[in-house]
Each structure stands twice: as structure tokens, then as C-alpha cells.
Amino acid sequence: MTTKKQLLDYAVDDAVDLYVLLKSADVRTAKNGKPYIAMVFEDRSGEISGKYWDASPSDIENFVAGQVVHLQGRREKYQTHPQIKILHLQVAPAETGLTAGDFIERAPMTREAMEDYVNQTIFEIEQPTWQRLVRKLLTQYRDQFFTYPAAKSNHHAFQGGLAFHTISILKLAHHVVTQYPDLNSSLLYAGAILHDLGKTIELSGPKATTYTLAGNLVGHIVLLDGELVRACDPLKLDPQAEDVLLLRHMVLSHHGLLEYGSPVRPALREAEVLHQLDELDASIMMLDTVVDHTAPGEFSERVFALDGRRFYRPNQPQSQPKPEN
Amino acid sequence: MTTKKQLLDYAVDDAVDLYVLLKSADVRTAKNGKPYIAMVFEDRSGEISGKYWDASPSDIENFVAGQVVHLQGRREKYQTHPQIKILHLQVAPAETGLTAGDFIERAPMTREAMEDYVNQTIFEIEQPTWQRLVRKLLTQYRDQFFTYPAAKSNHHAFQGGLAFHTISILKLAHHVVTQYPDLNSSLLYAGAILHDLGKTIELSGPKATTYTLAGNLVGHIVLLDGELVRACDPLKLDPQAEDVLLLRHMVLSHHGLLEYGSPVRPALREAEVLHQLDELDASIMMLDTVVDHTAPGEFSERVFALDGRRFYRPNQPQSQPKPEN
Amino acid sequence: MTTKKQLLDYAVDDAVDLYVLLKSADVRTAKNGKPYIAMVFEDRSGEISGKYWDASPSDIENFVAGQVVHLQGRREKYQTHPQIKILHLQVAPAETGLTAGDFIERAPMTREAMEDYVNQTIFEIEQPTWQRLVRKLLTQYRDQFFTYPAAKSNHHAFQGGLAFHTISILKLAHHVVTQYPDLNSSLLYAGAILHDLGKTIELSGPKATTYTLAGNLVGHIVLLDGELVRACDPLKLDPQAEDVLLLRHMVLSHHGLLEYGSPVRPALREAEVLHQLDELDASIMMLDTVVDHTAPGEFSERVFALDGRRFYRPNQPQSQPKPEN
Amino acid sequence: MTTKKQLLDYAVDDAVDLYVLLKSADVRTAKNGKPYIAMVFEDRSGEISGKYWDASPSDIENFVAGQVVHLQGRREKYQTHPQIKILHLQVAPAETGLTAGDFIERAPMTREAMEDYVNQTIFEIEQPTWQRLVRKLLTQYRDQFFTYPAAKSNHHAFQGGLAFHTISILKLAHHVVTQYPDLNSSLLYAGAILHDLGKTIELSGPKATTYTLAGNLVGHIVLLDGELVRACDPLKLDPQAEDVLLLRHMVLSHHGLLEYGSPVRPALREAEVLHQLDELDASIMMLDTVVDHTAPGEFSERVFALDGRRFYRPNQPQSQPKPEN
Amino acid sequence: MTTKKQLLDYAVDDAVDLYVLLKSADVRTAKNGKPYIAMVFEDRSGEISGKYWDASPSDIENFVAGQVVHLQGRREKYQTHPQIKILHLQVAPAETGLTAGDFIERAPMTREAMEDYVNQTIFEIEQPTWQRLVRKLLTQYRDQFFTYPAAKSNHHAFQGGLAFHTISILKLAHHVVTQYPDLNSSLLYAGAILHDLGKTIELSGPKATTYTLAGNLVGHIVLLDGELVRACDPLKLDPQAEDVLLLRHMVLSHHGLLEYGSPVRPALREAEVLHQLDELDASIMMLDTVVDHTAPGEFSERVFALDGRRFYRPNQPQSQPKPEN
Amino acid sequence: MTTKKQLLDYAVDDAVDLYVLLKSADVRTAKNGKPYIAMVFEDRSGEISGKYWDASPSDIENFVAGQVVHLQGRREKYQTHPQIKILHLQVAPAETGLTAGDFIERAPMTREAMEDYVNQTIFEIEQPTWQRLVRKLLTQYRDQFFTYPAAKSNHHAFQGGLAFHTISILKLAHHVVTQYPDLNSSLLYAGAILHDLGKTIELSGPKATTYTLAGNLVGHIVLLDGELVRACDPLKLDPQAEDVLLLRHMVLSHHGLLEYGSPVRPALREAEVLHQLDELDASIMMLDTVVDHTAPGEFSERVFALDGRRFYRPNQPQSQPKPEN
């Protein structure tokens, strides 16, 4: 009955039949006065919404966020937004053994591998102040760092996304310091590890992620700066010493422009590089997702975080037999 | 010989003859190969530059920054910038008893009066967390707060200017909370006192003020946020508790726009009001100076900090006998 | 049956039962081909919309704008906009004695008190030309000035709002001229009284306010300038004399920026101050309303007129027992 | 001795020898302490500056603005700005019969021809209100209209330039109403004649033109609107009647954008057309001058009023024998 | 039964009864699960949409794009957008003899007249390189040039609109070169003819016009530049010779600003003029349509391509008996 | 006598004594009427200007651009710009054997190594159309490609800079396609090789580089697109086939924003990546130079091409003994 196809693999008008996670389920009242449930379904391919009309009291009780369900319906388009027309829905029987965790998108590295990579990089930070500060803050926020998403939406918005995004930047950084040896690798690595760590305070958690009050009133960039300053006292460091200031600046300036929330623009070579690597990784991650969900020969939907641009997926295959020269 | 006129009271082509402070004195080489000294003179009316040509070695030794001098010359205009043509210059004789302090612009309140006003306002902060944080930080930076300027240039760029600007805002705030009683006066006063306190770290000191490295790489807004977070540990406060976050937000958002260096825009009624009162006081202070130095019936030079606008000083007297109706 | 609760006091899903004013009632055709009435209800707490389905001819005849009605229903949310689901609706019986005036939001001062305040301030305008021009124009537009709203929407959009907003600015101005005595109080008061008087020509009236053709093609700023020029002839004044130009400039520049509709930017100290006080009062009025309608611990809806920002209402009570020092 | 070449016909390093008008002459002090005169020379080809070093008292007395002089020197370039190196200068002998008027750039039509053209167009304004308002204001400002420049600098900055620029627009307008007959020709002609008439109040006069106080504090657009309103009373017109509002709107919106000083953007088809014809004529006039003063195969200096662009003058001749096909 | 009224002549609530073209017909699923057809109807007055509910299989088969139909219904407004409520719909009987061509909006000149005008202008291009390039490209794209619209939407979005828009610019150009004889008429005419010719590659065709892949990835401006370069080889021209570069620049710069897709800004007098004439004709064409569809005394809907402005249609008649003077 | 120090190694006030290349030498007239030569000196560390006063006719003859000279003088600062005060200058004796080539900054790879790298990468382009187009254009412009600078100023403004910049991007690209395997490496490499090849037409040559007319009127981005289209005919390719369009788009969009001269924004994943790698390499190259020329503990001059930012060179050494953990 179920297939190996995933939620976002269906084209418009395809019949849909598979187990998925009910990510959210809000009860509302329809124009005809009857209750319906606005649902969002999710599996590792992504998410899509649908409306469950004429909900009975027991439906409302059963179909709650976090439940695994067997979904049968049709993929449709409602005013340019994809959605599922639900034809039949039931709670997944216990014997399937399926749990929410089977459907949630995750970072494509294990937590263990991510921890190893980050630990290894910390060893490569030769400057002692920066190493101590990175160690202290990472110890303090370790669990959140390896489980939180990198954002509420847009890029790396999945469990472990924060660490995975950080590691992608570190990989780029390792190449860049080889190609441009004048860069201070210790500063670049330390800045990269800390740059988004404030998101562990800005965001509410790995699932159903929202902004905390601290996130709304202060923002992750300044929150982490606060934690850096606070970490100085027990480590007997002066928060206004040059080496501490350099690291603070790496974190503070990484959005590049004041308009994007950095209170200062990059004034160090390494700060400019960190900013650009951050953008590069975020763009590629977004575009990989966007292009994957676009049919060959067509343009994607508008990508809000890339100025509303639409991206083309060529018919052209990606690799081919080498030409004879 | 000397007159009671001050440095900026002279019109173009007037003969100048008075004691002034030599604010800066840089030795350079002229086109003809001989050394000259680029000088800036200062008294409480403001400052103006001049060139001392054909400087002898003893001139170079005598005419150094900080020296009080007897200046005779002529006020001129060099490519729209005012300057003094120096005709005769000598070090002020000891018997005049004049010191640098006699010529430096100061806040128009005594330090004692300023301390009283601020202390009184702290009593009016009813919320205990905010009161304790304000007390702690003010104790820590008291001396700098009452002697530093509010800026390197533009508004309140004089000794004690930082405290005087803060007090002006507090006075406006006292009126505003009376007129609009829904505002939280404790939050507004606490935010006002701390809003520019970070300048005591951003700027190098009360005289010959420059930006510190911390000022350049972090900026006064985030520097003070760091100090607020750091003050929480000894006071056993949680830097992410709501009341602490509200105060941090007051400081962080007071420039109003991200483009002006605030990492977050005002999201509290009181934060919006603080931002607007800050602008109002700064604008009036700048304009009072600008209009004072403009002749009636003329437009001022362009005011850089007000988008390069020029301001008109009317011929119209400021007050008159009341009309009979 | 009815309660003392007002229209905007209900939370989502609350049952609503109260007398309100039918502010507007437009008949439309539903998807099923039957007529329905799109209604807006109003009382002094604000306004909210609802749809009256399956309207009979007699419903259409009875439920017209301006009618007081007894509304029973439920508060709902339709795509982020609040609305009322109407369950029962009937015209208020005559014996309730309720009239439209009982439900319309008004300025929180009586007209008499507002007239007194403005008259008193006119006495304080010492410069005779400005006093005569203010008197003449205020006499001409007195009734409109004390009954019109200050805007179609946003701030002070209620009966008497125009005069009330003007008086709020005058109160701020009285404080400001005390704190900064170099300001010309006559010019500031005269400019403040006239600054928005052109809205009596720009807007259609105190109720169901729309823009007039003159408002759309000329705008209130230039309309008032025209009236100032026109008033000069009978008063034997030269519209290009300095004192008249100063007052014209106060009105013309009060939006601060060309992009906001001022044909010139402020070039007088008093014009800059008027612009800033106008913004300050408008912001506080808007924020008071916005924060009032937000639950503690939550962020408001986006405030369009403040760049779409959302504002936080703290859990923190506004005042508390004074800390022991 | 003198030649028929004009001031701007000389290339860099050419010897210059001709009669010119001394447009301005400011006495200043050189670095060596001696007075010199900063001069601007003018003839009908344009203007250029030069410095008269070591000026004697009698030089200062003789060489005053408005004097016709015999100039001998060399054309040079000083930091990208052209200038004349003065080798010999003397007041033109009375017997040459030369007067200032012989050297001032003028509109390329006689005043009489310009008056005829404008009068003829007024006859074509069929709508009576517009015709009466145009007649009244033109009668009032006739002399200024036919002698003032269109601007202090940039385009049509010569005597009679205001009327000439207006007539150029009227000529374009006559063609446009033929090609697009839905346009209301009366409104377009009336708006075109009045659009810049406020410059007769904004500018100080036909020579040595500066901005008046009215120009600085109100601006020509709103000044003319004031005059339109003021003209209504004697003509028994209502300044808020539709036909008057349409004409006011034509004038008020003709700069097209709020940022360019129009308090409203064009909201009439004819207002949009007037704005575009105004830009078209101004651009072509500027570019004709700019390209004339550029050598074939080179780029001009940056044209400030066209966003600092530089324009290319082709080697390509402008017309050639027709190709045989 | 049918009337002479056209599709856009009906006011809201009018009964509609006429033959029209079914421009598009998309089958979708309604909330109740039944198929409906989203239709767009068109005749020479414009187009309007409507929904055909409860579509049977034979309805879906019959009502396809391109079909002429007899439409009976009512004009309505759905959330500010006009639409037709369909009451009865049937395929037009063969005996009416109506075809799609009878309903499609066309250029108001015959193709023959347009070809004549363009050919005549080509004769007036005296410079041989430009004439040869224009001839070659026009020969190559002749059919598309005289049948394509000028755009997918906005101005001249009808069959033949591309040539008609080009000819309108040429007419303006003929007048302008007479009034400003320094302009190079050959360059202006050649540039005008080619400026939008790239749209024959950018757009898919004269009907149901969409963007081609070349249009999306390259754009009409650079596509035509590519064709110009490519045409040089057979004509033995150097694409980097001055005369070819001048013509390429005319095409490349005609959008005026980089932000509008021109890779270079106009750097020739004629390029600036072409850009302005292009804007003038496009604006007038758009405004004629907009004002036509607005009732006297009302403002139009927002015109997206003119910065979202709304335009007023005066009550004022367009022409009247001449006033007696 | 001469030292191994290079031109930019001297601090302000240092005595300078070394052989350098006279990069440019313009004869001008000083205020005292005597000729002087405005010179620019260059060696591999960079360039700096100086003025040679009171030039004799033989000086003017000897000191011409391209000459190697022995320079003795002093490094000074003239209004924030560094310059050399020339004390003694003579043409380098023939016996030194020094030629211009010894002083011109070059790419830090040999031409041979650069050719090898590019050839190797071309082999890795698996898609035949792209490989053939790259081969053809590189063959055509090979010499220019390996000798031209990448720009007139800013980054890679040295001989061979164009190829070196391209290779730096290719190295980054090789790493990126490994880390993000979904990217089409053939397209990225082909686009990278061609992206700036148009500069061989836009710029005048490897030395004394200026913009050509084609560069000014068309620009390197569109010039290369023209060459791509032109190359299609002999290769029997359709310039509007998908694979050709993809490559054209890579080149056309690589400036990222319309405002920066790209006629289209990136609409392919690989185009976005190319744009970002281009910026990354250019920024690092500029910053390496800027930071090199700044003293430790100081901020650089403003970097125009990076929005006028100033960059800090830390006192902090770049690497240190690893901390013991």
C-alpha cells in the first residue's frame, strides 16, 4: 500500500499514499460553520500542507501534532502554493513501529562525526585565548549546538543544522587558509565555530522552533557577544584586550552589513572572509533544496531569502561522456 | 591689548588679538621645503585652524599642543573653511595665570549639580533589577561618565558632555512620562542613564578624544551590553530574564535603525521614546551652536550630522512686545 | 444579557454579546450566489469586521451603516485578521436610547477644554504677524479643526483627534522652550497650531473620513500654504516677507523629508523641533493603542506606520514597591 | 590683435587673446601674503576662471565684475578644471564700444518672438479658467518671465532661458497632442506655461543669479501654487474647484518624484507628460552644450545633473552621403 | 440577444450578454471536490476572468482556450479585482462566422501601413553601416517584428504592438530631430528600430505570450546585441568599430538605468533621447488605457508599471467652446 | 647606496633612496609660472606619486614614463595621501642593467604554470559544447588572457593578473565541487574561465591600462557575450540552444546585481556560486595588499572598492605555540 516515494516527490495531480508525520494541526472554523483541521505533513523530503474538512470531535482528538499518520490524497496547487487534498487519513497503527524521529529531516552527518570534526578543529586553534573561549562556550552549549537547527526556516532548518552549517564553513575555511596563507587560521576557525552559537539562545529548541524573547529583543549576534564577555571573568581575561576584541568582532560582524543586523561591519580580513563563507554555504544549501524540488526545464518558485529570485533547473544532464578532442 | 571677544566672534577680515589654547600643533614641510606648524586654536566659543609658516626650531619647541598662547592675526576664509592668518604668536606669560582649563568648552552645569540630578533620578527607578544594574555600572564608570564628551565631534563634544546630554534626555523624559502616563518611567530613566555609557569605553578620554580599539571593533552600544551581562553574575541576575532583557533592549535599540548601528530596532514603547528623545536633544544642541555662529539673515554652513542641511538664522528678533489685538 | 466588556476586549473564541455601532455595511454576492453583508462593527475600544451570510431583503434594509445593533457571535481569526462570526444580530430597540455617538471614539478632552488651551497658547504668540495669521485661519476653520480626526487611519483617527494631536504637540513645545530657551516660542507655537490645519481641507469630514480631490491632488501641506498666502491680502501682509516665509516654512517642512511629502526640508531650528515633536506624539499615540491591544508577554501585530515593526508588551508590571537601597 | 575665436574655443595650451566680460572678481590673499583676484571671464560661448596674481590697489579698483576686459593668456588645466593663465589684462578702451550685453549668453530667440509664441499658445487654451489664470499670472510676472534664466546653473542658465525652455516644452507639447489626441491640450499648455514661473520669485534676477529667501524656504513649485491660489480671489474662482485643482496639480507634480521636490507625484496623464517633456528638453539642452565642448573621439567631463555620467562625442560625422542600396 | 457593448464596457452588477473569445481555460478542483474551469474572456476592449463551476466532462472538452463563446452572466468585483459571474455559457454556433481573430486586440495601424512607415524611415538612415545592419536584422526577424506584442503585459501587449510602439517612437524622433537639429537622426532612427527587436527572441510569440528560456537567461537587450555582433561577419564589419559600437550602445543603454536591465547607462546624446522617448510613449499608451477604464471623477486602480500610482480622470470635459477674451 | 627596501616599505619621514620605474610623468605649470613634472614611481611593492619642481627642458626630456630612475627623497603625507618629496633624481646608468620589467608587479605564478593549470581544467570540462566554446575563445585571446591585468585598479591590477585571478577562482571551484557534489563542475569551470575574458577587449593592454571605446560603450560582460554568440556560427552551434544559453548566463550574471553591471541576476546554482567565488577572491587579494601596507595596531586607509571601510592589522602575531590543554 505505501510506497518508497516521499512527500515532495509527487507531481501535481498525483495520488499520494504514504506514512508521514503530522507536523502541526490547528483546528479552525470553515465558512459553513463546521470545524476543520489545517495540517502540515512532513517527512525527510520536506513538508506540505492540507486541510481536513468536517472534522469530528474524535478526529480533533486523534490528529494532533507529532502523530504519525497514513495519508491518502492528491497533490494539488492552491494559488501557486502546493498542498495535499486529503481523501483519507488515519493514525498509523502501532505495529508499523514508526515514530516522529523517522520523518524529521536531519543533518546528513551523525552527531558523533560532527563532534569529532569540531573537536579536531579546536585543536588547530593555536592562539590560547581563542581556544579557551571556544572550549568554554562550546562546553556550556554543547547539547544545543549539536541538535538545534541553523534557522527557523530558509537554510539548514533541520535538527543538527546549526552544527552542520558550522562544519560546512569550517571545511571551506580549511581550504581557503591553504590557498591564501596570509589569513590567520586560528582566528578564522574560532570565529566560525562561535559565529552562530548565539542561536542556541535565540531559538526555542530543535523542534517547533520559535524565537525566544531574548532572540527578539537582543538577537543571536549580541547574545553570543554577551556570553563571550561573561566567560572572560572566570577565565581571568580582559574583555577589552586585543585578542578578545578580535574574536568578538568576528562574531559581531559576520552578517556583513548593519542592515542585516551586524552592529559593526567587518574590519578584519578574517571577518570579511567568514562573512562571505557564511553566505556561500547558506546559498548553496538553499539552492540545492530549491533545485531538487524543481522539474528539469523549469524555473523554481521565488526564493525569498535570495531576493525573490527564481532558479532554473536545466534539462542538460549534470555530467556526460567526455568529448573527444 | 587683549579683548573680551572670543575666537568665533570675529568676522572675516577682522583683526584678531586674544589669548587662546593651542589645541593641536603638527609640524609639516611646505612647498618651499621649510617647516611650518599646522595649528588649531581653541577657546570656549569653539575652534579654528591656522598655519604658522617658516617655523624655527625654537618655535617648534615652544608651540606645542596644550600651550596657552597670545594670538594676533586676521580671520580669513580658505576655500569655504574659516581660518586664522597668524601675524604674531607668543607663549602666554606665566603672570597671566591662564591654564588650558580656562579655554576648554565645558558642560553648562557643574559636575556636582549633574551628580545630584542623576542620583535623584536613580531613586525614582522603582524596579529593583534596573536600579541595581544602573547603580552598579554607574559606580564602575562614574568618573568617566561625568568627564567624557558625548562624542568626538558633532553634539556635546565637550568635557562633561556625556553626562550633560544624558541629563537633558532625563529632563525631557520627566516631562514626557507626565504627559503620557502609560509609559514605564523606571524603564525610561534606567535606559536613558545607560544608553551612552558605553562611550566611556569607546572613547579614549575627556581630551584629545579618539576611538579606542574596542570602540572601533565593537562600538559603544554592544560594549555596554557586554558590561550589563557581566554585571549580572555578581548581582545574581539572569541576563536572559525578562527585566534584564528589557533594559538591554533599551540600550541596544537606541539608535533606532540598524543602519545607524543598533543591532535591533526599538520593540518597546519606551525604547522608541528613548530613541526619539536622544535625537531631539542632539539636534537642538547642534542647531544652537550652528545658529549661534551664523549671522542674522544668512544660512549656516552645511551640517554634516543633519544630512548636510544648511540652517537659516532669521533677522526676525526672537521676542517682541505683544501685539494689541 | 449585554456586558460592560467592549468590542476589542474579547479574546479569540470568546462568545461576544453587546451593543455596537454598525460602522459600514456593504452588500455582496457569495460563492453560492446568495447575498451577504460585509459589516464593520465599532465601539470606543476600536473596530472589527464580520460577515452576515444569507441576507434577506429585510436584513439588507435594516442593517445599514450608522445603525446601533445588538451583536451576538464569536471572535475568530481569519488569516491573521481578527473578525466576528455573527450568530445573531438585531437592531437595538429604541428604548435602549443608544445613538451612534455613544460608540464613536473621541478625543479624551472636551472640545471646550481644547478650545481654551489653544486660545491660551495663541495669546503667547508674541510676534504680531504670526498671531494674526493663526487667528484668521483658525477662525475660518474652527469647527473642522475641533471635530476632524488627525488622519484617516493610524494615529488620532478619531473625532477631535486633529485638535487633540495639536494640543499634545503644544504641551511638548511648552516644555521644550523652557528647557532650551534659545528656541523662538512664538514661531514654534504658531507653526504647531497650523501644521496639520490643512487636513480640514484634505479630509472629507469627522466621520467616514476619506480624502477629498484637493487632498489627493495637492495634499494638506500645500493646501494650508495656499490658505496662508490667501490670508495675506486682507491682512495687508506680503507673502514673501521674512516673517510670513518663516511661518510658511514651518508648515511646509514639518514632514521632515521630501519623501514624506514636505517640499522643503527643515531649515530653521524651530522647524526641525516641530517635525520631531510631531513624530514623537504620533508614535506614542499609536504605540499606546497597539500595546493596549496586546496581551502581556506577547508581541503586537505589525504596525504599518512604524515600518512594520512589532512591539512587545512586557509581563513586567509597570510600577512596583520601591526597592530598599 | 583680437580674433573671432571665442572663450571656449581654445584648446589646452593655446594662447588666448580676446575681449571678454569680467563676470566676477573676488579679491583674496595668496600664500605669500599678497592679494590676488579670482576672476571668472565670460562670453557667449560660456565661462572660465583665472587668477590675477599680485594685484595692485589700482588693479583691484579697475578689475571689477561687469567690466569688459582685453585678456591675453594661456588656456590650462588645473586638476581637471579648465582655467586661464592670465599673462596680460587691461580694461577695454571706450572706443571699442563693447558693453556687458555683448558677452552675455542669451536665449536663441528674440524676446518678441518668444512673446508671440506664448501669446499664440494662450489662445489655444480653450478652458476658460485655465486661460484666465495663465493670463493673470503672466501679466503679473511678464518681465521676469522673459528675462530670467531657467536655473542658477545646469540647463538654460542664461538670460531669457526661462521663457526659452518653456517654449521648447510647448513645441514638444504641440507635437505630442497631435500624435496622442486623447491628451487634453489646454491643460498641457496651461501647465507648461506656468510650471517654472515660480522661478521668477525663487531667483534673484537675470544676472548674478542667486536664490532668494523665498526660494530657499519655500521653493519655486510651492511659490507658484501660492500665487495661483492668491489669483483666485480677484477672479472669483474657488481654489478647490476641480479645474483649478487640475492646474495646481500640473505645477506641483512636474518634478515627478517627491525626492525632487514635488509635494505630489503626477496623478493626471497630462501631468506625467509635462514632467517627461520637461526632462527631455532639459537633458537635450545640457547635452548639446556638453558635447559641443568635447573633442571628437573623447568623453566629456562628468555631468553632475545627469548623475555624473560622461558623454562620448563620436568621430563619426553627423551626416553623410546616402548609401546606395 | 447580443449587444454592441464590449467586455469592459459593463459596470459592476450589469448583466453581461455577448460573444467573446475564451483566452484561457484551466481546469481545477473546487473546495467541494468538484472540477471547475478558471476562464479568461477577451475581446478588443480587454480581458476579464470568471469561474465556471461544476464543470462536466463535456464542458471541459468544449470550453478550451481559443474557442469563441456566447457568455451570459454578471459583472462583479472579487476583492478589488473585476470578474464575471458566469450564468450561462455555450460555444458560438458556426453560423455566426466568428473567429478568434475577431476578438484579439490589435495595433491601430495595418501591418502594411506599419511596414511602409518603417521602410521609409530606413531610407532616411544615411550612415551606411547602420542602414545595412538595420536592414539585415529586420529582414531576418520581419514577421515576428510586425506581429509580436511589445510586452507580455503593461504597454502595447497586443498583436503588432512591438512594431506599433517602435513606430510611435519614430514619430516622436522625427519631431525631435527637427526641433533639436544637433541630434544625429540616422543614429536615433537606427537605434529606435532595433531597440526592442530582441523581444522577438525573448517572447514566445504573438499569442499566449510567455518568456523563452533565452528571454529569462539573457534578456532581449543582450540577445539583440548578440545578433548585431553575429550580423557583422557576413557584412564584413568589425563589431568593435566605432560606428558599430555606437549602434550597439543605443540598444544596450535604452532602459536608462542598470537597475532596469541596461548593462550600460546612456553615454551618447542620442541614447539618452531614445531612452526618454521610449518611456514617454510607453507611459502615454499605459495611461490612455488606464484612464479609459476609469469613471470620470474617480481614481484608477494602481498602475504597477508606474510605481503603483493611481491616476485621476477629471469630470472636466476635454475640450470646450473657446472663452471670449 | 641603494638598499633592498622597496618603495612602499618606507614610513612617513623616512629618507628614500632606491631605483624605481617612472610609471608616468606629466609636465604642468606651477603657481610660480615654472614647469614641474607630476610623477608616479613604481616597483613591485606598489606605486606612489611625487612632484619634480622647477623642471629644466633637459629634465623634461629625460624623465619620461617608462624610464628607470634613481630616486632620493623623503616619504611624506600630503592631505592623507602618501607621496615622495623628491630631493634628487637621475636616470639609472646603463650599467645597472635595470629595465622596466624589473619593477612591474606581476602575477605570482609563471605564465607557463598558469597555462598548464588552465589547460588541465579545460580537460575536466566534460560537456562538449562548453569545452569547444572555451577552447575557441581562449585560443583567440590567449596572449591577452595571460598578460592583461584583471582591472585598471583595485584587485589584480598587475601583469598576468587576469589569468591569475581566474586561476584562483578555479582553485576555489575545485574545492567547492568536492564539498557540494550536486554542483555541475563543467559549467562552473567553463563559466569561471570565461567570466572576465571580455576584459581583453575592454582594457587597452597590459601596461598603462585604460578603457577602450568598446569597454566604455559596451563593457566586458556583454563584449564577451557577443564573442560567444559570434563563435557559434563556425562551430555550428545555436546561440539560443540550452547549453549555450547556460554558459552565456554564467558570464552575464557574474556581477550578481544589475547595479553592478550584470544585465541578469544569477538564475543558476552555478552562476550564484561563480559570483560569490569571484567576490571572495577579489576581496582577499585586495585585503592582503591593504593589510600588508598597514602598520600593526593601526587601521588602513579607506578601501574604496569595499565600501570605504578601513581594516585593522592586529598586533597579535599570526601563529603561536600551541596552548597546552
Automatic annotation (TrEMBL), chains A, B, C, D, E, F:
GO biological process: rRNA 3'-end processing
InterPro entries: HD/PDEase_dom, HD_domain, YhaM_exoribonuc/phosphodiest
Keywords noted in UniProt: Exonuclease, Hydrolase, Nuclease
Domain (HD): residue spans on this chain: 165-282
Gene3D superfamilies: Hypothetical protein af1432 (1.10.3210.10)
Stored CDD domains: HDc (cd00077), YhaM_OBF_like (cd04492)
Name this polypeptide is given: HD-superfamily hydrolase
Lineage: Bacteria, Bacillati, Bacillota, Bacilli, Lactobacillales
